[in-house]
Amino acid sequence: MSNLKQTLTPPFDIVRVSHVELGVTDMAYSREYYADIIGYHIEDETADTLYLRGMEERNHHSLILTKVDEPIVKRIGFKVRSEEDLDKAQAFFASKGSPTLWVEKVAQGRTLHTTDPFGVPLEFYYQMDFVADILQEFPLHHGSRIQRIDHVNLFHNDVNAATAFYAGELGFQVTEATVEDIETDDSDIWAAWMHRKGGVHDIAFTNGTGPRLHHIGIWNPSVTDILNFCDLLATSGHIDAFERGPGRHGISNAFFLYIRDRDGHRTELFAADYLTVDPDLPPRLWDLQDPKRQTLWGQAAPRSWFEKGSLFAGVSLSDSKLKRQPIIAPE
Amino acid sequence: MSNLKQTLTPPFDIVRVSHVELGVTDMAYSREYYADIIGYHIEDETADTLYLRGMEERNHHSLILTKVDEPIVKRIGFKVRSEEDLDKAQAFFASKGSPTLWVEKVAQGRTLHTTDPFGVPLEFYYQMDFVADILQEFPLHHGSRIQRIDHVNLFHNDVNAATAFYAGELGFQVTEATVEDIETDDSDIWAAWMHRKGGVHDIAFTNGTGPRLHHIGIWNPSVTDILNFCDLLATSGHIDAFERGPGRHGISNAFFLYIRDRDGHRTELFAADYLTVDPDLPPRLWDLQDPKRQTLWGQAAPRSWFEKGSLFAGVSLSDSKLKRQPIIAPE
Amino acid sequence: MSNLKQTLTPPFDIVRVSHVELGVTDMAYSREYYADIIGYHIEDETADTLYLRGMEERNHHSLILTKVDEPIVKRIGFKVRSEEDLDKAQAFFASKGSPTLWVEKVAQGRTLHTTDPFGVPLEFYYQMDFVADILQEFPLHHGSRIQRIDHVNLFHNDVNAATAFYAGELGFQVTEATVEDIETDDSDIWAAWMHRKGGVHDIAFTNGTGPRLHHIGIWNPSVTDILNFCDLLATSGHIDAFERGPGRHGISNAFFLYIRDRDGHRTELFAADYLTVDPDLPPRLWDLQDPKRQTLWGQAAPRSWFEKGSLFAGVSLSDSKLKRQPIIAPE
Amino acid sequence: MSNLKQTLTPPFDIVRVSHVELGVTDMAYSREYYADIIGYHIEDETADTLYLRGMEERNHHSLILTKVDEPIVKRIGFKVRSEEDLDKAQAFFASKGSPTLWVEKVAQGRTLHTTDPFGVPLEFYYQMDFVADILQEFPLHHGSRIQRIDHVNLFHNDVNAATAFYAGELGFQVTEATVEDIETDDSDIWAAWMHRKGGVHDIAFTNGTGPRLHHIGIWNPSVTDILNFCDLLATSGHIDAFERGPGRHGISNAFFLYIRDRDGHRTELFAADYLTVDPDLPPRLWDLQDPKRQTLWGQAAPRSWFEKGSLFAGVSLSDSKLKRQPIIAPE
Question: What is the ipTM, given to two decimal places?
Fold first, then answer.
C-alpha cells in the first residue's frame, strides 16, 4: 500500500525513541508507582524531577517525571545517529515551520526542542550519559522487572497524515497497520505501527481525539514477570491502576497489560515482539473489522482505553476533529 | 463459624473427587475440543464414549464423554478408601432416602449409583484400573498439558444446606467461604469450597439456580501452559470457547481460565493451590462485598459466568428458588 | 513389592512433616541467606533464634534457626492429627526404647521429643499457633517466593530398615523407590520417597553415610521463580551456595535446584509434584542403573551431592556402615 | 578499546545473519530432530534438501539441511540492504583476493558466494521469497517453539584478526568481548560478540581450533519453552543431544541450552537479549578470569563445549594454530 511507504532518504537519521517526560501532580505517589511498584530504577533526582530507567538501559533516563500542577506530557525524546543529524533535524523542522530551540538538557547535552506538524512536542539529541550497567545486578530488579522503553502510542485525528509524516518524511518503517478496508488499495489508515530500531514499533498512531499520548510501552522479558506484577499491583494499594489485560494482541503479537496512574498517564507492559530490520519486510495488515487484531483471545477492551489519553504540553484539542467514532467495547 | 464445621466421623471415607461423566451432542467436535485442544489423553473409546485422563493420572479416566441428544451432566464420581466404605456409603444414602443402585462400570468395577439430597447424580467406587504412567512421556503432552482433575463446582439454591450436607455429614473440610456478612457469626453462606484430598477443594458450591454444574476444574502445573493454551484456542477455530480470564482469583489464589464447550459445559484451567491437610486449618473467609475474592486484579466476570450452567441428569429446576440474585458484572 | 508396604493401622496419625530446626553458626549470615535471599518470612525472633515460614504457611514456623557453635540439625518436627495422637506417639516410642520427653515449645504447645530407632531427633505436636495469612500479601513475597516446606531427605545406611520403620510401622506410603534390581521382587531398596500428606513425599531416604540430613525441600509454585532466584543468588554474593541444577528429576518429576548454606545445610527448591492420596496408588519404581531417575536431562550431579550432609544432634556416625558405595558423578 | 572498533563506512551494508546451510548425513534423523523435536517449520523440501524456518520468520528459510556423506557446514548466509550492496560486496571480496561467484539460489535469487579471509564460506543476497505468516498460527507451533535465527558462533585461531575483519572492515559493532587482561588497553581478544541487527550478535568468535562453526543460535521468546523442550528432548529418544545447560550466561544475559545433533552440529536455544542499536553503545568487557561471563550460576561447561565444532566446507585446519589453550571444565 503506497500510503504506508517509508522514505529511504530521510533528512536525518533517527535511531530510536529514547524517553518521555511526564508532568505529574504528586511526586510521592508517582515515585512509589513508577519506582517501587513498576520497578523503574531511580538514576537521579532533584527537588521536582525524577530520572528513571529500565534494567538493561545504560543511558541515564528513559522516563523523566516532573512536578506540575496539571497532568501533562511534556515531551517525547528521540536519539539521532550523530551530532550532524541533530543539525539536519533542526534545519528540517525549521523548513516545516516548526519552532526549533537548542537547549542543554541534563545528561543528554545539546538537545533540539521542536514539534511535529501536529503540535506534538519532541526533542532530539545524539548522546546521553552512560551510567552503571545493572542488567545483571539482579538484587536491584524488582516490581515488574522492566527492561527498557519500547515505544510510544498516540491518538491522532488523521492517521493518514501522521503516517505520511513519520514514515514518508522521517523514514520510519510501517510494520503493522489497521485499514478501513483491507481489500482496497490505499484504504484509509485506522492505525499504524512504525519503527526505526528493528522491533514492531518506536511510535504508533491510532484514530482518536488527538494528538494525545495513549501510552508508553515498556518491554519485559517474560510474561510471568507481568503476571507477578499484577499480583503486586493488586495488593499494594494500586488496584485502581488496572485498565486492560493481561492478554495477547493480534497486532504485534504482544502479551500486554495496560495500567494508568492517578494522573491518567497510561503504561503498557509488553512482552514478546519480533525482528523487523529487513528493509523489504511487508507490513502485517489488519482489517478494522477483524476482532483478533485487538485481542487475540477475544476479551473486549474497556471504553476508557478508546477514550482516555494524556494531553501534550502546548497542544490544544479545540480544533481536533475525530475522523470517525472509535470502536468501543460491546455493551 | 459453626455452620462451616465438618464432621470428624463421617459415615464412610471419601478420598477425592475422581471423575465426571458429561453427555455431549457431537462426539467429533468434543473429541477435538477435549483431546486435541485441551490436551486430555484418550485412554479408551467405544462407539459413543470417550475415556479421558490428564498427564499425571494413572487411573483409567477422569472425564467420560458420552453421546447424547441434549447436553447433560450424567454423574460426578468419587473414590472411597475401601470396598467396605462403599457398603457404608450405600447404607448411608439409603438411610437418607436416596435411591441406590450397584452397577459394574468400565475400569472401576463395583460402583454405587445414588444422588445427594438435592438430586445430584453421584457415583462411588473404590478402585479404578491403573493404566500406563505418562507423567514423563512428554511427547504425549500437548494442548494445555493438563495434569489432573482438581474439583467440581456447582450452582446451588441453598449453599447453607449444601455445606451442611457435604461438610457436616460427609466430612469435607471447608477451606474458603464467601459469607453475606463477615462480621456476623454463622452468617448465610454465599459460596463454600470444600476438600477431602488436601487441596483447596474437591467440590464447591456457589449461590445460583441449581443444582447445576458450574465447571470442572483441572489442574495445570504452570501459568505459562495456560497462556500458551489461550493462543492455541484462539487460533484453532475455538475462539467462541473463551469465557473469562486468564486472571487470578482472590479465593484459592488460583490462576484461572474459564472456557465453555459448544454444549455449554464449562472447564476451568487452574494453576496454583495450597496445602490444606491440617485438620485445624481455619477457613479463609471472604465478605460478599469484597471485590478481590472473585478477581484479584479487578476485571469483572461476564454475566454468563453467573448465569450459565450444565443441567444434571434427572434434576428438575422447576422448584428451584434462588436465595438471592447473583452478583453480576457491572454494566 | 512387600518391603515397600505401609501399615494401614499405624499406632498414631501423622499429618505431615512440619518443620526443621537447624543449628547455624553465624546468625547474621543465615538471616540474610534464608530471609533476604531465599525469601522466608521472618515471623518471630529472639536473641539467638529465628522463626521462619513460607508464603502460604499460616502456622508460626516451618524453619527454626538457632545459634550454635558447630553446624547441626537439632530436630525434625511432625504434626499429628490430635492431642490423643500425641499420647499414642509417646507410648509407641517408649515401647520402642526411644527416649521420650514432653516439652513446651514456642508456638506449638505440648511437644514430644524423641528419636527414631536410628537416633534421628524428632518432635511431634498437634497444634501450632496460627499467624497472619500472607498468601496474597504479594508485596511481602521476595527472593525465591517459596510457598511451604515440602519434605526432608536423609542419608541412611540401611534404607530397607528406614522404610520398614517409616512405612511399615508409622504408616507413610511409598510413592517412588529406587531398587537395586527392578526385576527382582523385594530387591534391596536404594532410596525411598514416602508421604503422609498427599504429595510425593514428607520424608525420603537415600543410601549413604547416615543418618544425616541430605536436604530440606521447599515447594515453589513456579519454575520461573526458581530461575529468577538463580540470578539473584549468583549476583548477591552467594554464588558459593549453588550445588546442583536447575534441572528435572526423573523421580517425582520435580524441577529442582540444590543450594547449600555456609554451614553445609542443603535446601532444595522444588517445583511440580503430583497427587498421591489414593491408598492403592502403586509406587513408581526405578532401577538403580536408570540414569533418568536422578536427572531426566542427563546432567551428572556433583560428588558433593552424594557425600555431603548435615549431622543430627546426638547422632554418632562411628558405627555407621555404608551398605554400598554411593553412585557418584562420572569423572 | 581501539581493537574492538567498527568502521562506520563499510564497503557494503549487511542487514543481518540470515541462514546457515548444514550438510547432514541422515536426512530422516535430521528431519525428526530439527522439525519434529526442535520445532522448525518445514517450508519446502526436495529429495535431498529441507528448507526450514522459525515461527516469526516470513522469509523462506533460515536453515537449509542438505544430504551429504560427511557432516559439514556448507555456508553462512547474510542479507544485504539492496541489490547494489550485493555488487559492492562482490567488488570488496574480489579486492581482498577471495573467490566470488554469482549463483541463483532457491527462494533468494541472485546470490554471491565467497569466503572471508579465513576461508569461511559465506553467501550474500538481497531479497528472499516471502512465505505465509505463521507467527500467530499457534497450532503449527511445537517442539521448542523457536522464533528465528539469532546468530552464528565460530571457533577462531585469531580472534583479534576476526574482529579486525568483521568489525573493522564489514562494520559489525562489538557488543561484548572477553579480553585476556581487562586492565590493559587493547589486550588480546579472547572472544567477541558482534551485531548488525540491533541485538547482542549476528556473529561471534571464540578462541579455539578454527575456523569451525561452534553453534547456530536460535531465539526463543520464553525460558519455559526451553525447559519444556528439555523434557521433550529427554523422553523422545534424543537424550544424547544434551550438551550444556539450561543456564544463564553472564555474556549477553542469555538463558541458554546447547544441544548437538548426531552429525555434531550444535544449536543454542537462546532466550533473553538486549537492544544494541545505539551507535555509541560501549561494549561490555569481561576478563578471561571472570567465571560469571560463561555461566552466571557457576556450573562448569563440559569439555566437549570447548573442543567440538563443525568443519566448514573447503576449510583445512592443517595450518590451524591455537592461540592458547581453551579454558576447560575443572576436573
Answer: 0.95
